[in-house]
Design brief:
alpha/beta, 2 domains, single chain, Spore Coat Polysaccharide Biosynthesis Protein SpsA, Chain A, 8 strands, eight-stranded mixed sheet
Length: 318
């Protein structure tokens, strides 16, 4: 049976890039329909993540012009991960498979056909992975490698050089729906789901227009979310660090007592100050890490909705 495919594309302030990429998404969909790889009622579904520009107006016009376009709008900005989940949960009601991708044209649309082929072979999750980072600056390449090494080192199961360009079957999305946490990190959740999976490699292009919505600060925040959502290793590191400092302090106490008994006492304000600063720094870092975990517990216990859909366009009746 030919599967129904929904492309799920989050958008936030994308008025500059949408006129350039929306037609390419639909053209690729038409190509796959003509090739008999997907069903004719497949759609390109955009998710407006509370944009402040004319993004929703553009999406509304697209939906009025062609029923192949569909769109939902969130009541306010909820962040990329929540917007993506909102689109996936809506799409799974109508599609056999979904492919999530960025709106900016950086994800190679030609990889979509390869992903569908992998699904036809029985793979229910297909990751889109960059084959190289030659187009990135030295700083971005270095920071990306450090990012993945850091997550791996903290015990987070993640696919290197994979963002959120992936195919998932409806069965996988049903399993994903069971993950109810507010602090979402899909790159860490998806590998935990299991199911048969494969990888498709592609070359990432330059953004077609507009500015990136993922600067270094957001990448750092995403890395912190990934670690604190999937690993308690930082807490264990704090414990180990505390034991090391306690051991060194014990050695220091013995040294002070021996010096006192032997009558060799030297004023040591510099060393004392250094030790105090070191221990105080360790304590502040430890409190910060513990506070990050407590903050996440606080948010999870409230059980507030991750998103609220305010409008829908061209979404079939259930």
């Amino acid at each position: 049976m030919t599967p129904v495919l929904y492309l799920v594309i989050p958008c936030y302030n994308e008025e500059q890039v949408l006129p350039l990429t929306s037609g390419k998404f639909k053209a690729k969909l038409d190509e796959l329909v003509s090739a008999g790889k997907i069903a004719g009622n497949s759609r390109v579904m955009f998710v407006n993540d509370g944009s402040k520009d004319t993004t929703w107006d553009i999406l509304t016009s697209l939906c009025e012009e062609d029923e192949r376009y569909a769109a939902i709008s969130l009541s306010r900005n909820r962040g990329h991960q929540n917007a993506l989940v909102a689109g996936l949960m809506e799409a799974k009601k109508h599609a056999d498979i979904t492919i999530s991708m960025d709106c900016d044209g950086q994800d190679d649309i030609n990889a979509i056909g390869q992903m569908v082929d992998e699904y036809a072979k029985g793979n229910e999750i297909v990751y889109g992975v960059r084959n190289d980072r030659s187009t990135d600056s030295w700083f971005k390449r270095s920071s990306a490698r450090s990012y993945y090494r850091f997550l791996k080192g903290m015990g987070v199961d993640i696919i290197p050089d994979h963002a959120d360009y992936r195919l998932m079957s409806a069965r996988v999305l049903d399993a994903l729906e069971g993950y109810g946490e507010v602090n979402l990190f899909l790159r860490g959740i998806i590998p935990q789901l299991g199911f048969k999976q494969s990888v498709v490699y592609y070359s990432r292009a330059e953004r077609e227009a507009g500015k990136t919505h993922y600067p270094l600060s957001k990448m750092i925040a995403l890395a912190i979310d990934g670690v604190t959502s999937f690993s308690v290793r930082p807490l264990r590191i704090i414990t180990l660090l505390g034991l090391i400092v306690a051991f060194l302090s014990f050695i220091g106490i013995i040294y002070v007592l021996v010096s006192f008994i032997s009558g060799y006492v030297v004023d040591g304000w510099a060393s004392t100050t250094c030790i105090l600063c070191f221990v105080s720094g360790i304590q502040m870092i430890s409190l910060g890490v513990i506070g990050e975990y407590i903050g996440k517990i606080y948010l999870e216990t409230k059980q507030r909705p991750r998103y609220i859909v305010s409008e829908k366009k061209n979404i079939p009746e259930e």
